[in-house]
Amino acid sequence: MTANIASAAPQAAPEGRYAIAVHGGAGRYEYDQFSDAQKAAYKAGLEDALRAAQKVLEANGTALDAVTAAAMSLENTPLFNAGKGAVLNAEGEVELDAAIMRGDTLEAGAVTGIKTVKNPILAARAVMEQSQHVMLQSAGAEAFARSVGLELVPNSYFITPQRREQLERAKASKEAMNLSKFGTIGAVALDRHGNVAAATSTGGMTNKQWGRVGDSPVIGAGTYADNASCAVSATGHGEYFIRATVARTICALVEYKGLSLEDAANQVVRDKLVKMGGEGGIIAVNTKGDVVLVMNTPGMFRGSLKEGGEPYTAILADE
Ligand code: ASP
After folding, report:
1. Which domains does the chain have, with CATH numbers?
2. Which of ligand 1's atoms lies nearest the C-alpha of 214?
3. Which of 54, 174, 241, 305 has its CA 20 to 30 A from that of 290?
């Protein structure tokens, strides 16, 4: 369905400079947890996503197409908890959630609990562009995805041996869900036309109850975009992110209280969420091209790229 992401006609005479940020999940990562080869592989996955978005934006494409391209790249990389390589629920199956939003029109689309759509972000985008609705769930979302011609795969396509082992460890550890690491993916972008967009895609949390939906597909919680403020994609313990309406609150602080993007993100992620006990982080961009990558966990797979600059990728908080 690459036609889907190349569909917007290039617009004339763009004036601004683009900016992109991506994440591959936040968590309690430790310095010696990853080998050099693993760190390099994660960073290469993040950089591939930045480059995929950059390609769109360099051609004067839209932020919407850029975040779609970045999210698809991360969904197709088995290292991250979205699309191929997503975590397993308590039944040993993959159930995927995704959302996308554009900041110029405030249109949004989301899917929850889908099991057979190869790229859930395309399903979310199709809901936004080809249905009357904002959110479709499980069987209804899958039937819709099929009706618009999205590529379907068996659930086994998403499952990797590492995720099976992770589920077994989580079940043995009596933790209801695996809280140590969140691997959701997300992308935010500003295009040369001055529009922002956000996309988030996830398998949720290891050992989650069948039918559980996290924050990622909930507009205003894990995903939000508004040209009047910013675009945000979150990763973390979804139950907290839903109750703190993280993404929309950050945008609202910028829009109504005039906070800088950084101050707004810090207030929600490093203060409010910490007081609630909600671990995780966010990436955000505004129409000025400010990019923030903020977490309250020891690490977050993340990357950013501004027009004319070099890609930055990092894992630990202090990198
Ligand atoms: N936020 C996701 C969820 O709760 C998990 C993650 O960020 O990895 O579903």
Report:
1. 19-316 (3.60.20.30)
2. 9
3. 241
Q: Which atom of ligand 1 is nearest to the CA of 81?
A: 8
In degrees and rounded to multiples of 5, residue 192 shows phi and psi of: -70, -15
**147: its two tokens:** 């009706």
Q: Which atom of ligand 1 is nearest to the CA of 236?
A: 7
How far is residue 264's CA from residue 95's CA, in Å, rounded to a whole number?
32
Mean pLDDT, residues 96-116? 98
Q: Name every protein residue with a CB atom under 6 angstroms from any ligand 1 atom.
A: 25, 81, 182-184, 202, 204-205, 214-216, 222, 235-238, 241
Mean pLDDT of 227-241: 97
Given ligand 1 and candidates 205, 223, 301, which is best to mutate, with the most ligand atoms within 8 Å of its CB? 205
Q: Active-site residue numbers?
A: 184
pLDDT per residue as tens digits for the range 38-97: 999 999 999 999 999 999 999 999 999 999 999 999 999 999 999 999 999 999 999 999
Residue 295's Cβ-count burial label (10 Å; 0-12, 13-18, 19+) is buried
Residues 19 and 306: beta-carbon distance below 8 Å: yes
